[in-house]
Design a protein that fits this description.
Length: 84
Amino acid sequence: MDTLAAFALGTEPPLAAVVAGQPYENMRVMQPEIWRQIYGMSLWNVIVMMCVVFIVPLTVSGGASGGMSEYTMVNNAARAVGQD
């Protein structure tokens, strides 16, 4: 959807007030706050994925001895439709 919005805005003629203005100098697009948010969300995603990979299999019945293949979406879907 962002592509369609960019395409729609890219085909509009520029406004006279915007074209008449002077360009910004020494303006960083990626501010330190944005980098902090990117790093924070990346760290959060890594923590959540590590919990999913290492902790969730231990809490499911059978523990880690059942093997990871028992907990895949394909096997669960096959069990749900009775093709076990």
